[in-house]
């Protein structure tokens, strides 16, 4: 497949995610923003202002370089454990991250995360990482709940590694238990949507390493 014909990993679920997130006119905290793969979409979907944090200095440098001088964006090298935001955001998003979100949200605010499917029987593959942008490398299979892992980020056009981050693999039940303990309500899970035009263009087999079951899930919770 020619480089220019590579699947646009950041585009595949744009319309459905925009509708489901309800991000328009909201002040957003993007925890674990990485190199900013979702920031462009957040802006297109109408976010009022976006603050991105990540503990990886290289990732934040990439964000600042890519979005230099944008009036609706700011980026900081910071761990979610150490953040001091207090009731400043209508929406908090996270990719493979869940920590100290409650304090940052206003009452009635929403928390949305894209996390690895917490099913111990799923085998995450390097093939999927190269196609869709990220790969969770586990040290054992099946993985125990709470095991440490490494998430590897790829440039999907060149299939080259552009960054790595330490992460933790949790079962779905652990996410739900932790959110309820913190006071979140109406916890829901949703599989990412793949636009039919991409299935028609690339074929069902192309997405097999990402689906059946989905390697990632969208987690949504409401603060009381």
UniProtKB/TrEMBL annotation:
Gene3D superfamilies: Vaccinia Virus protein VP39. InterPro entries: Methyltransf_25, SAM-dependent_MTases_sf. CDD domains: AdoMet_MTases. This is Methyltransferase domain-containing protein. It comes from the Eukaryota. It comes from Acrobeloides nanus. The keyword Repeat does not apply. Residues 28-103 form the Methyltransferase domain. The lineage of its organism: Eukaryota, Metazoa, Ecdysozoa, Nematoda, Chromadorea. GO terms for molecular function: methyltransferase activity. The keyword Transferase applies. Keywords: Methyltransferase, Transferase. Pfam families: Methyltransf_25. GO terms for biological process: methylation.
